[in-house]
Amino acid sequence: MSYFPNVDKIKYEGTETKNPFAFRHFNPEEVILGKTMGEHLPFAVAYWHTMTQDGTDPFGDPVNIRTWETADPMETAKNRVDAFFEILEKLGVGYFCFHDVDIAPTGDSLEEFFANLDEITDLIKEKMDATGIKLLWNTANMFSHPRFNNGAASTNNAEVYAYAAAQVKKGLDLSKKLDGKNYVFWGGREGYESLLNTDMKFEEENIARLFKMAIAYGEKIGHKPQFLLEPKPKEPSKHQYDFDAATTLAFIQKYDLVGEFKLNLEANHATLAGHTFEHELHVARINDALGSIDANQGDMLLGWDTDEFPTNIYDATLAMYELLENGGIAPGGINFDSKVRRSSFEMDDLLLAHIAGMDTFARGLKAAAKLKEDRFFDDLKDKRYGSFKEGIGAKILADSEDLESLTAYALEHDDPKLESSHLEYVKSLLNDYLV
């Protein structure tokens, strides 16, 4: 059975095509900077938004038409596997991601939930073996159920902590079974509502304790995916502990997790933290912690996580520049943590939306590659910091100066000459690369 009978395998047809089910910019065989576009862009599809999101919003009931839905939760789960891999194959995407609750019903007990996960992942593994599609990462949903009202690893309830640990263990078992490349922790409830009754130090230590248990268990079972932490500043928690890349890196460093954890960064989370996506990617990159990305965008007029498919070429270009500077992102990838808009409720919109996102990142890659070839940013920075290449600047960088010698120099040269950055002109030149 085909869930998308009117759509063939999607191919690159170029910008002149009028076929909505064709790539206009993403050509996986095109070579850019010595690698194919497919190698530069290891796309992944998110199981949650693609297969379980129903179009509900705070003011409206479900609207999405999904022909895999039935009255039986396990039958629906099995149908989703078939439909999901049809989407992946038609898009030509090589990776996917999931939360445990996305793929299987939770049932009436933890034991039943685990049994359901085993049965569904058996089907997923069959599909993976048949298609060659790989698991980019999986994770445990430890934020939706009421038991996690006060957090999972940061909970005040030891029994909830044990339950969360069981989900992580099962998640790692599934990661080994499906040969997952990464494993993500997203602390959706790992934060606080009020400091009046919160022991932040205690909660952060317990979070780190669970992470170290995960590392130890991975070593025990002979499976060590790249562990990733995903920052987000707020929503659902008022203040989440992994606020942004810098905060999360500080946590990694404080609790001796350097080398064990990198970051999975999302564009919309960067927006909520008051940063640009390229800022978050840059912070992670210069600290050797850029692990994987979630590709989406927010609506700047709205103050929550809208998870829109990425269509902003400017943002995609600067994001891809950071990935190129990082030398790629393997074993991470580019996961579309994106959902169709409520008005895009037809089945085929799932394919159209992913095509739009893939084309956007392809355009961003091409522009970023040209910026890199032309040394656009390198030349700007070389000129801006040129005073440190000779004279007193070179001596400062050589650590041959001290406060006394620099004071003597300043007394003799007390009228520094500054140069304009001409930033508006620079931005207009950058725009030329995006056309």
TrEMBL record:
Give the GO molecular function terms.
magnesium ion binding; xylose isomerase activity
Catalytic positions? 99, 102
Instruction: Write down how the cofactor binds this protein.
Output: Binds 2 magnesium ions per subunit.
Tell me yes or no: is Metal-binding among this UniProt entry's keywords.
yes
Where, by residue number, does Mg(2+) 2 bind?
266, 269, 305, 307
Biological processes, Gene Ontology terms:
D-xylose metabolic process
Q: Which UniProt keywords apply?
A: Carbohydrate metabolism, Cytoplasm, Isomerase, Magnesium, Metal-binding, Xylose metabolism
Record-listed Mg(2+) 1 binding positions: 230, 266, 294, 337
Gene Ontology cellular-component annotations = cytoplasm
**What SUPFAM superfamilies does the database record attribute to this sequence?**
Xylose isomerase-like (SSF51658)
Family stated for the protein in its record? Belongs to the xylose isomerase family.
Query: Which PANTHER family does the UniProt entry name for this protein?
Result: PTHR48408, XYLOSE ISOMERASE
Share what the entry says about its subunit structure, partners included: Homotetramer.
Under HAMAP family, the record lists: Xylose_isom_A
NCBIfam families the record matches: PRK05474.1 (NF003998), xylose_isom_A (TIGR02630)
Q: What is the name of this protein?
A: Xylose isomerase
